[in-house]
Recover the amino acids of this structure.
């Protein structure tokens, strides 16, 4: 099975031009033969969001995001699994691969596609970018959902999965989770994940960082508690923006037409008070957006259009 990508110009919704072919199945991309262009991370998609750091000069400017659009969530999931496999391969033989996951619809997308693509889950370090303070077997628990749908298929060692202690009060749970991350990322002042997979809400929140919330100003803590989440349950812990922006790669995943308006605001807006997802701009890492067609329907910026052949 192959997918092809085409640059979509500013004034069109899609293009029939084909510029490359990549295999979505088989070994990690480091061993894929016959690519006519480099794999994900090297497509020539570049644009600047007016008013953002992408359009400001200076050494701290972040790299332009790579926006990829797929006909369906299933095809998006296949490409997302391939991206995980690529980043895992790039972590080097015998090296650790650190992966941070969001919950929600991502759980089932990854559960369907990732097991076949994961080469060496025994060397993964797995953490969660946010978590609800509920029992780990509660339906609202991100860890619980992944344990049910994904971790039953991928043998990540239990001692390499970083989880909260939901029996602690929320502030203490955040401190405890931060200590576990510091232990897992020994020798690093800031945890630097190889890959973070993030979602985005219709209000522009990501992780448990919500619009206009004081946590958007947090610069010291790597994990923060929130006890007044506008989305239930109210008590949560979340990674902070400094950790998100320290990652080597970040990919946002959004599907469905309910996300179209907020995706346009995030990727094309020039807002004095940017939405939380728009504040995720890795300092030295790569930033990807994986969208299905309904989620991308309002975009006018260039993006890569992918389809299964």
């Amino acid at each position: 099975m192959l997918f092809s990508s085409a640059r979509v110009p500013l004034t069109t919704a899609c293009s029939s031009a084909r510029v490359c072919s990549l295999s979505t199945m088989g070994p990690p991309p480091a061993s894929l033969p016959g690519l006519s262009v480099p794999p994900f991370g090297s497509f020539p998609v570049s644009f600047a969001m007016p008013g953002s750091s992408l359009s400001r000069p200076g050494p701290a400017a972040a790299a332009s995001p790579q926006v990829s659009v797929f006909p369906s969530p299933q095809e998006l999931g296949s490409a997302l699994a391939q991206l995980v496999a690529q980043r895992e391969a790039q972590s080097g033989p015998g090296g650790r691969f650190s992966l941070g996951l969001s919950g929600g619809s991502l759980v089932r997308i990854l559960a369907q596609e990732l097991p076949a693509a994961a080469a060496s889950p025994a060397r993964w370090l797995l953490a969660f970018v946010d978590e609800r303070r509920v029992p780990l077997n509660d339906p609202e628990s991100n860890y619980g959902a992944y344990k049910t749908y994904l971790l039953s298929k991928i043998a990540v060692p239990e001692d390499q999965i970083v989880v909260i202690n939901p029996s602690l009060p929320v502030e203490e749970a955040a401190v405890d989770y931060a200590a576990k991350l510091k232990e897992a990322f020994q020798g690093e002042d800031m945890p630097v994940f190889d890959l973070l997979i993030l979602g985005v809400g219709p209000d522009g929140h990501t992780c448990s960082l919500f619009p206009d919330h004081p946590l958007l100003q947090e610069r010291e803590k790597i994990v923060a508690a929130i006890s007044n989440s506008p989305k239930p349950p109210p008590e949560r812990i979340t990674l902070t923006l400094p950790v998100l922006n320290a990652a080597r790669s970040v990919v946002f995943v959004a599907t469905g037409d309910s996300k179209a308006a907020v995706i346009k605001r995030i990727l094309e807006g020039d807002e004095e008070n940017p939405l939380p997802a728009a504040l995720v701009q890795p300092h030295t890492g790569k930033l990807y957006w994986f969208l299905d067609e309904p989620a991308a329907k309002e975009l006018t910026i260039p993006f890569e259009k992918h389809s299964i052949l």
Notes: Confidence is low (pLDDT under 50) at residues 9-61. The two ends are 7 Å apart (CA to CA). The chain has seven helices and twelve strands. Residues 244 and 280 are 6 Å apart (CA to CA).
